[in-house]
Amino acid sequence: MDLRYFFYLLIFILLVLIPSAKSGDAEALLRLKSSIDPSGSLPWRGSDACGWQGIKECLKGRVTKLVLEYLNLNGSLEEKSLNELDQLRVLSFKGNSISGSIPNLSGLINLKSLFLNDNRLSGGFPSSISSLHRLKVIVLSGNQVSGEIPASLIRVRRLYVLQLQDNRLTGSIPALNQTSLRYFNVSGNRLSGEIPATPALIRFNSSSFLNNLNLCGEQIKKPCTDRNVSSPPSPNPAPLPTTENRNHPQRKKNKKKLAIVVAASIAGFFLLLICLVVLWRICCRGSRDREVRVAKAEGVLVGEGPSGGTDGNNVGGKGGFAWEGEGLGSLIFCGGAEQLYTLEDLLKASAETLGRGTMGSTYKAVMESGFIVTVKRLKDSSYPWLEEFRRQMEVLGRLRHPNLVPVRAYFQAKEERLLVYDYFPNGSLFSLIHGSRPSGGGKPLHWTSCLKIAEDLATGLLYLHQTAGIVHGNLKSSNVLLGSDFESCLTDYGLTPLRSPDSLEDSSGGAASLFYRAPECRHPRKSFTEQSDIYSFGVILLELLTGKTPFQDLVQEHGADIPSWVRSVREEETESGEDPSSGNEASEEKLAALLNVAMACVVPVAENRPAMKDVLRMIREARAEAQVSSNSSDHSPGRWSDTVQGLPRDSGSEHLNFTERD
């Protein structure tokens, strides 16, 4: 039978039997727009809903983040259209003038964050929220919601934020017992009775319960009396019947329609499956081999992105944080850092993967306000314990130096560890030296730049060793970022104590990191020291002077790493009687001292390496001498020796792409 027949049949099934998810969301959104935006201020046009204003994220054509904030929307929430958006993770109508009651939201089965605060919503608290078992954030503050807080909220096991302040709620506070609850506020209501002393609620102080005259309990230091416990009935009229109750017959009808749709979808699925099986049997085995090759290629790309693990413009892409899914904890700012963003802002930020390395994954997080930070998600998040992690982060968070990337905040939970840094748009030293592809080679740096970078790195490392008493532990050129004035700043320092001893066996999997490590630290269970940092510093200097990555396949007979290779090249020049400075005499003389410093740092025996203060002194002396003797007409590059420049780059190294942003 003609193969084209099966392709036509497959296309027919896709077009007829399987509905388009994207167009379905677009239709639901347009109906929602007509109810919340009667004035027509939202410019939603076309069929691609993922490009509309306020649609912050789509996944496989379905809308997952709908954020319409401070847009002066003044309609009401329409139940049917909202519940059709069943792939929503984040729903926010914050800061509008939406009125009416909050409808039944039980169809939003994937919802994690709900922001309806600062509107004109009224009616009772929507009990349907209790059925959303993935929900973590509920913010209804600044409305006119009345009635009681439903006791069924205790069934929302992942609840992290519950903010109900400044409403008209009455009755008692449910005995919430979620250990995940970190933000809670019911102030400015008409609540009464004793505040439950559950472990989840006992941690909150009086600020979470203010302006509720008939509340009592340990949290607000107000003993309970008969009057408090038996509070008078609320002066508010009973809330109107909710949409959930009024539309009970309609709900039955909708369930029947849903059953029909599900049955038709299942039938269509099996029909599609049969067609695919037939098509697979007709296709030759060569196509299967091709799929295997593609899968392998994709595996290489996923593991080895061009600018540090996985590049954000390729495999990593943009989207929400992976940690948004499980186990939220506390966002804590370090060292008096100004709180320019909140946990809520981070929850809704778009994330672009910058890299994946031995310590974890790094993201560029762009918040709704336009503020940008770098977020690192650590591996081995279950180690160490929360208290140990907090103590380590307090130490790192207090460090401030012009040549360090400061830790601004950290985030800890049972299953997550996140660090928040300033974002450095100028990239890393690795990219400066090698360009976008390490095998392609970047332009040689001028000798003045080499000396300035060396001094910056030595200054920052000396501060870590001498003032802070901290070992970097993962020093390499991709962990050196360039500041606004292109000053070199160390990042990811002091993180090795956060790795589990049981996972260190896998740490050698980061090929780039291994080539920067001192010989005594290449065994997984060996601890890092100041001397091992000095060795890594020397490797970076050699990388700077030669323009070659430490993990390139240089020349096999010259040794397995860049220090061995440089030693061999120098020995060959000495034996052949060549003048090492014959190529670029001016720059070679100026960089000879820096080369000697680098070779002193990479001696195999740790005890024979100089201390960091002596390394910095030698670099400053070399820089001062070079500045005195410099000639304004000298524009020679800063590579060491024509011999180095002339050595072949193995074409196989085109495929080596081990750089990681730890």
Q: Concise description?
A:
Helix content is 34%, strand content 14%. It is an alpha/beta fold and 662 residues long. It has a 7-stranded mixed sheet, covered by helices on one side.
Keywords summarizing the entry:
elongated, 7-stranded mixed β-sheet, Transferase(Phosphotransferase), domain 1, about 650 residues, 18 helices, Leucine-rich repeat, LRR (right-handed beta-alpha superhelix), Phosphorylase Kinase, domain 1, 22 strands, 3 domains, alpha/beta
Computed structural class: alpha/beta
Range of helix content: 25-40%
Counting DSSP E segments of at least 2 residues, the number of strands comes to 22
Question: What gross morphology would you assign?
Answer: elongated
Return Rg in Å.
31 Å
Low-confidence stretches: 14-23, 230-250, 284-318, 322-327, 504-509, 579-584, 631-637, 640-662
Task: Return the CATH topology of the largest domain.
Answer: Leucine-rich repeat, LRR (right-handed beta-alpha superhelix)
User: Roughly what is the average pLDDT, rounded to an integer?
Assistant: 75
The CATH homologous superfamily of the largest domain is named: Ribonuclease Inhibitor
CATH C-level label of the largest domain:
Alpha Beta
